[in-house]
Specification:
The complex is a heterodimer of chains A (171) and B (502).
Chain A: H1 2-12, E1 14-15, H2 21-36, H3 42-72, E2 75-76, H4 89-126, H5 132-153, H6 162-170
Parallel strand pairs in A: 1-2
Chain B: H1 5-16, H2 19-34, H3 40-46, H4 48-53, H5 56-73, H6 75-81, H7 93-101, H8 105-140, H9 143-161, H10 165-179, E1 182-183, E2 190-191, H11 205-221, H12 230-238, H13 241-253, H14 255-270, H15 275-289, H16 302-318, H17 320-326, H18 332-343, H19 350-355, H20 357-360, H21 362-378, H22 382-385, H23 393-409, H24 416-434, H25 438-461, H26 473-501
Antiparallel strand pairs in B: 1-2
Helix pairs in contact in B: 1-21, 2-5, 2-21, 3-18, 5-16, 5-18, 5-21, 6-7, 6-8, 7-8, 7-16, 8-13, 8-14, 8-16, 8-17, 8-21, 9-10, 9-15, 9-25, 9-26, 10-25, 11-23, 11-24, 11-25, 14-15, 14-16, 15-16, 23-24
The chains are: A mainly alpha (171), B mainly alpha (502).
Chain lengths: 171, 502
């Protein structure tokens, strides 16, 4: 019973922990930035200090506002909305890993093959493995269309892989 | 630079004969404008061998048509999938995207096209008539005034784009600090670069735009089956040609709104470096400030879509004024046009208007004709373009991620920029989930280097005295305006609370 009451109480409160992520990142970055300008001539420091100090002041105001809400019992510091809905966390992390893989492997596989592989895997991931044939067809059309638009038409110097090298030899 | 009606009539008639150059430039411009990373400037650079080989007049018409249509193209993905094609369209999704989610994407596109065309057309005609006076605007704005305008820009975005002003300001100033990364323009000292050589030349804008808007959006929308709400889907399925016609009617009924917001764009466009992003946000804020229903802004309000679209197209002709009158390009595309014309031995400045009026006034005639042709070519496409919104997020998200990351790579062709886009994607995702508006961060990143440059200039002139920022009358008036603009939302909130309690 007590546990139920605690859970209801938690659900009623605003979860403001997530709201502090960006300000904390901004605060740490600003301090790092200040550190990198210690030896710079004074004139070049002033504008950064001007903007940085205003930013720190604003972060301070937000911290005070959140602190007052937590003290008043209307909010807590759980992450809340940023991780909700929890059922999507694995998919989101997997999509992030695939995106990172896209950037890493494009250097060796080249544009067309990497886009095809990424599109196929990401669509299968998000669609829970359904419509495999359709997914591969869409990924094939889009990656080849992208090759024609970006590499053939716009002459973008994107990393060339086996597919681009083969096409260059053929045509 | 005197007004000669016969010259203008002849010029317009002559420009129409170049429809065969304008038409392909329009379609190319719409495509490159809609893909983040493929700006008009990049495309003109890619096509330089072609434009340099053309007759200067034909080359200029091609570049101007591509420039004007890319501005309109940037609004299309901003409305349909919440991804502005360029920074100039960063204010467009504020009301355009909510309209799409309600199933009114086709109508929103029609409103955007009409506002862009009439806003751009009107600004072009006014520019032609008022060139001598417009060219003076830039002379009144010096470093000190520009510092206040930049800070004004951040505070405006904080108050309009974010529901929580404090969070909006934090996002904007965080963006400014990110914009300060890189080597400073005077002493060339690297600051805040984390040791990455790729950041010495400042944070590149396209990866920031791609990350904050596209990548974060792709990670955000996978929670739903489609970006449309259930009612939006039903409305979308019912939509026919009537939705386009309705959009045109709605936009035309707001003709006064189109006029004054495009004028905001024109005046801001004349100031070198100010750009379409600032113009669009200022117009949006002004539109909301004078609206009888400001609470509807951000929910899919028509006037909230008209304002940024008219303004960012008004900027287009404005950026050409300093280029043609004093030889200072107002933006990247104008700078490339300068290079092409100089290659042909054309010297910019007042003499150009006497010696080659067809070249001096030609860009504006080309722009007006482009806008005129554009309305007939693009409006019928609204119905088909809006169909993209019914595509499931299962397919949409991976497509957005892969193709926009490619866009992040294109301008500088560094692999680093794709990683940077991913980092901005994470920042954008956290910002969306916690109520820090991504547009405020982006505008900070855009304004950061400009603010620092003006700061350094002002401080150099005053030998390091910070009080220089309060030394000019016009700047002081702007400071007062800035403080008032920050206090008004708070005062209004208190007043409403007091009224509700009474």
């Amino acid at each position: 019973m007590t546990e139920n009451n605690e859970n209801t109480d938690k659900a009623d409160k605003n979860s403001l922990g997530g709201d502090l992520i960006l300000p904390i990142a901004a605060f740490i970055f600003t301090l790092y930035y200040f550190y990198t300008i210690i030896d710079v001539p004074r004139i070049a420091q002033i504008s950064a200090f001007f903007v940085g100090i205003i930013l720190i002041f604003l972060i301070g105001l937000l911290a005070i506002r959140i602190g007052r809400e937590v003290k008043a019992g209307t909010a807590d510091l759980r992450l809340g909305g940023i991780i909700e809905p929890r059922s999507f966390i694995p998919k989101r992390l997997a999509l992030l890993a695939l995106t990172l893989g896209f950037i890493i492997f494009v250097q060796w596989l080249g544009f067309t093959l990497t886009v095809f592989t990424f599109l196929s895997l990401a669509m299968l991931l998000l669609g829970n493995g359904r419509n495999k044939g359709f997914v591969f067809a869409i990924a094939g059309i889009l990656s080849f269309g992208g090759y024609l638009l970006f590499i053939v038409a716009f002459k973008t110097r994107f990393p060339a892989g086996p597919f681009e090298q083969l096409m260059e030899r053929l045509f | 630079m005197e007004f000669d009606p016969a010259l203008f009539i002849d010029l317009f008639a002559r420009t129409f004969t170049f429809w065969w150059v304008i038409l392909p430039a329009i379609f190319l411009g719409l495509i490159v404008g809609a893909i983040p990373g493929f700006s008009a400037a990049n495309t003109i650079i890619i096509l330089l061998p072609m434009t340099l080989a053309m007759d200067p007049e034909v080359g200029l018409i091609f570049m101007v048509a591509l420039y004007a249509s890319s501005r309109m193209g940037a609004g299309i993905p901003a409305i349909l999938v919440n991804i502005p094609g360029t920074a100039g369209a960063a204010a467009t999704p504020l009301d355009g995207y909510p309209m799409t989610k309600q199933g009114r994407g086709q109508q929103a596109l029609a409103i955007s096209f009409v506002s862009s065309v009439f806003g751009g057309l009107l600004a072009t005609i006014i520019t032609l008539l008022a060139m001598p006076w417009l060219s003076q605007v830039a002379f009144y704005l010096h470093s000190v005034e520009m510092i206040v305008i930049m800070l004004f820009g951040i505070s405006l975005i904080a108050t309009i784009a974010a529901r929580d002003t404090l969070k909006g300001l934090i996002a904007g100033f965080f963006g400014l600090m990110i914009g300060y990364i890189g080597a400073d323009v005077v002493y060339e000292t690297p600051r805040g670069t984390f040791g990455f050589l790729e950041l010495y030349d400042k944070v590149p804008l396209i990866p920031a735009l791609v990350g904050l808007f596209a990548v974060s959006e792709a990670f955000f929308v996978i929670e739903g089956e489609s970006i449309l709400s259930k009612r939006g889907k039903e409305a979308m399925q019912k939509a026919g040609w009537a939705a386009t016609i309705e959009g045109v009617k709605i936009a035309l009924s707001k003709w006064w709104h189109i006029i004054w917001t495009s004028m905001i764009g024109l005046v801001i466009g004349v100031v070198p470096g100010a750009g379409a992003a600032i113009a669009a946000f200022v117009a949006y804020q002004q539109s909301r400030a004078f609206s009888k229903t400001p609470e509807l802004y951000g929910t899919g309000h028509v006037e909230g879509l008209i304002a940024p679209e008219s303004a960012n197209n008004g900027v287009t002709s404005g950026t050409l004024v300093p280029l043609l009158v004093i030889g200072i390009p107002g933006g990247a595309t104008a700078a490339i046009m300068l290079v092409v014309l100089q290659y042909h031995g054309v010297t910019m400045g007042p003499d150009l208007f006497m010696e080659s009026p067809e070249l001096a006034y030609g860009p504006f005639a080309a722009m007006a004709v482009t806008y005129f042709i554009m309305i007939f070519t693009i409006l019928p496409l609204a119905r088909y373009m809006s169909r993209i919104t019914v595509v499931s997020t299962i397919y949409m998200s991976p497509i957005i991620i892969s193709f926009t990351l490619v866009g992040a790579f294109v301008p500088r062709q560094y692999m680093f920029d794709m990683y940077l886009a991913l980092v901005f994607g994470v920042i954008g995702y956290v910002a969306r989930k916690t109520g820090y508006h991504t547009a405020a961060i982006l505008i900070g990143v855009i304004l950061g280097p400009l603010l620092e440059t003006y700061f350094l200039r002002a401080l150099k002139m005053s030998e390091g005295d910070i009080m220089v920022i309060f030394s000019k009358d016009l700047a002081n008036v702007l400071w007062v305006g800035l403080v008032i603009s920050l206090c008004i939302p708070y005062a209004m909130q208190r007043w409403r609370a007091w009224k509700a309690a009474a």
